[in-house]
């Protein structure tokens, strides 16, 4: 199964860039950082949901919460999960995402998934659901199966570098089956990190992004409703 090409980058690329990319490349969805969050202060994406959706972009909202390594806030617990999950759901509502949409909790580390992280994930997911939305998780492919057991029904966006050198990348961008990340039920796969792409025809490779592929053109969209029952005529 082929996937749908997408990208994510920390800061908003700008309205003109987003318009050019949707019109001139095979990119159909983008990561959308909800901020300020505990480990992500750049709020450049905020306020763009309506215009991006109107332009035809699929959107994968991302919440960069408590971490155990690297920069940011390093305090995963049940209490911070409750607070951060409520904040994520609040952002989803204020940004205009439909009820039932998925928001992806960013987990940057590889194994092991510590007990405080498990507690944080559980509390965060519960708070997101209480706020009217659904949890997803962005994580290493090495954690995907464990997280899927801990949070059945969560959409998984797994990172596993494909072996393609980042460098400069040209459209068409990868549309690989997300199962290629090593977790067969993944909704999305981040397969190239920190590459550069063009944002004008023949122009410089000036926008640094991560490239992704998903099973759907809109990885944050709510689940489709079940089909209506068919009349039997009885």
Folded structure, characterized:
This protein has 234 residues and is α/β, with parallel strands linked by helices. The protein has one domain: Glycosidases (TIM Barrel). It is 26% helix and 23% strand. It contains five helices and eight strands. The chain has helices at 15-24, 49-55, 78-94, 115-130, 141-150, and strands spanning 4-8, 29-33, 58-63, 102-106, 134-140, 155-159, 188-198, 205-214. An eight-stranded mixed β-barrel has the order 1-2-3-4-5-6-7-8, surrounded by four helices. The relative contact order is 0.18. The mean pLDDT is 96.
Task: Please describe the structure with a list of short key phrases separated by commas or semicolons.
alpha/beta; TIM Barrel; 5 helices; 234 residues; single chain; 26% helix; 8-stranded mixed β-barrel
What is the strand content? Answer: 15-25%
Q: List segments where confidence is low: pLDDT < 50 over at least 5 consecutive residues.
A: none
The end-to-end span amounts to 40 Å
Order of helices and strands: EHEHEHEHEHEEE
Distinct helical segment count:
5
Query: How many β strands by DSSP?
Result: 8
Cα radius of gyration in angstroms: 18 Å
Summed up, the domain count is 1
**In CATH's first tier, which class applies?**
Alpha Beta
Gross morphology: globular
Helix content: 25-40%
How are the strands of the biggest sheet laid out side by side? 1-2-3-4-5-6-7-8
> Which homologous superfamily in CATH is the superfamily?
Glycosidases
Summarize the biggest pleated sheet. Answer: 8 strands, mixed, barrel
On the 0-100 scale, what is the average pLDDT?
Answer: 96
